[in-house]
Amino acid sequence: MSMQTVAVRTSGVVKTFGEGESAVQALRGVDFDAHCGEMLMVVGPSGCGKTTFLSVVCGTMRADEGSVEVFGTDLIHLSAGKLTAFRGKNVGFIFQQFNLIPTWNIVENASVPLLLNGASKRDAEAEATRLLTEVGLGKRLRAFPRELSGGQQQRVAIARALVHQPRLLICDEPTASLDAASGRKVMELLKASACRPDRCVIVVTHDSRIFPFADRIVEMGDGVVKGVHNAGEYHVSF
Prior knowledge:
By secondary structure, the chain is an alpha/beta fold. The chain has one domain (about 5-235): 3-Layer(aba) Sandwich (Rossmann fold). The protein contains six helices and ten strands. It has a six-stranded mixed beta sheet. It has a four-stranded antiparallel beta sheet with strand order 2-1-4-5, with helices on one face.
């Protein structure tokens, strides 16, 4: 793992929802680094700001104060159009609930990011097929999401997240809906497929079963980073 190349760096990030007496400060000055080649997990109690922070890092939400740099690009000062284009090219998402389109087969589902980036249907589906085969679904390419187990659906979600070769992969509770064995297989797949020297993987999780897969664990609380730990040294404190 390269600890020299910074993939994500934030400084003094503040995010407030609402105004006046009803205002809630979700992020209170977050300083954070994530490096290329690592799988970094963000942990903390519900309501501590993890999801808000993830949204700021991936550009789906703007910070009110502070700086957010992703692979050297300052997201704070990008126009809305350029931010959308940057996110579409550089960021992949894996969600807890998979978010697959039920009326599309899994090749069509996994093709979506490439189609949004302007690829032809043929090229998009060819790359989706390659990745689905790589994650063990080569014999189920025409299956629909309802015909797959939870673990298989999550594999489709991984293929979809990686199909456009994003440099930053954001995973929001990727194992929360899975049993222990399926969750372990998904994390092994993520580690093998996504953790490369030119990529960074950030996982928000409550699932202590997957902590051993992390290179580092960032603990959040009350809208700030409370500490950074090596995975083997971290014990849940919330």
